[in-house]
Specification:
alpha/beta, 262 residues, 9 helices, 8-stranded mixed sheet, binds 1,4-dihydronicotinamide adenine dinucleotide, globular, binds ligand L7NTYXEO
């Protein structure tokens, strides 16, 4: 049974111009297309050319009025917050916020923290303000993209691991805040193992082939983007608040985030 009434939902996906984010956008649009009232999905990304190309492709498939693209650098706090506020005002609401934009760059580790941690915290806090029932919003779902590297160490990507571990703690705490004060918002964290994209294969250059092969074996292999996307949709539609998913090709482990102890 779905945890949200489905028709006419409005979703924002950061880093939705390519890769995993684009696949999430497409899956939301496919789901919406089967409903009496479509989903409207907004892509926010720094990649103008890829964003425009994805927009054209998705508008042809799902209709002009159901998908939008705006340039947005999630490290530009004012731009990001203002965009979320205007999406909420112009489209009329915000139901689903997916903080997916992320990088893995140890040579510029401060920027990795700005994008992966500060950007996601900002997106979560601003979306929370717009969704909170006690502040006149309609409630909603916020999904933050962590990684298996948010739960375990991986050689050579220490700042990436720190940001993804940070997201797990942050999202768990927001989930508790929501339950405590009845905001009507569900918070989720996805922790996939390596997804079979060009990006993960660059890990080999950082870790070396031997460690990479060992890590892939340890985590049960690389995940297909389609497999991850199905789990994403299930989390958005069916999961309870506080749910964290470890996604592997061998299956999904759902961890209910701890309840408050006092
Ligand atoms: N590929 C993998 O194996 C895994 C990836 N993840 C996470 O999934 C997310 C997506 O990764 P991929 O699709 O693989 O990578 P990708 O590099 O293909 O996509 C990342 C997207 O984020 C955007 N982005 C980067 N910096 C941005 C900024 N400052 N503002 C706005 N957008 C920005 C990029 O332009 C790009 O469209 C990331 O958070 C990553 O950490 C998690 C587990 C496994
Ligand atoms: C491989 C075994 C496994 O499942 C481990 C997963 C650990 C983390 C998965 C994922 O979250 C990390 C991806 C890291 C990618 C690393 C490098 C590239 O981002 C470099 C990109 C540089 C560029 O933009 O060209």
């Amino acid at each position: 049974m779905e945890k949200i009434s489905l028709p006419g939902k409005v979703a924002v996906v950061t880093g939705g111009a390519r890769g995993i984010g684009k696949a999430f956008v497409q899956r939301l649009l496919e789901k919406g297309a089967k409903l009496p009232s479509h989903f409207q999905v907004v892509i926010l990304d720094i990649l103008k050319d890829e964003g425009e190309a994805s927009l054209k492709d998705l508008q042809e498939k799902f209709g002009r009025d159901n998908v939008y693209f705006y340039y947005c650098d999630v490290t530009n706090g004012k731009l990001f917050e203002d965009l979320l506020k205007s999406i909420n005002k112009d489209i009329g609401k915000l139901d689903i916020m997916v903080n997916n934009a992320g990088v893995c760059n140890e040579d510029d580790w401060e920027q990795t923290i700005h994008i992966n941690l500060i950007g996601v915290i900002r997106g979560t806090k601003q979306a929370t303000e717009l969704m909170r029932r006690d502040k006149g919003g309609n409630g909603g779902v916020i999904l933050n993209m962590s990684s298996i590297a948010g739960l375990e160490p991986f050689k050579g990507i220490e700042t990436y691991c720190a940001t993804k571990h940070g997201l797990v703690g942050f999202t768990k705490t927001m989930a508790l805040n929501s339950e405590d004060a009845d905001w009507g918002i569900r918070y989720h964290c996805m922790c996939p193992v390596g997804v079979d994209t060009a990006l993960v294969h660059k890990l080999k250059q950082i870790t070396g082939q031997e460690y990479f092969d060992h890590a892939v074996e340890k985590t049960g292999g690389l995940l297909s983007i389609e497999g991850l996307t199905e789990e994403f949709l299930k989390m958005i539609l069916y999961s309870d608040n506080r749910c964290l998913a470890i996604v592997k090709p061998t299956g999904v482990q759902y961890l209910e985030m701890e309840k408050k102890t006092n």
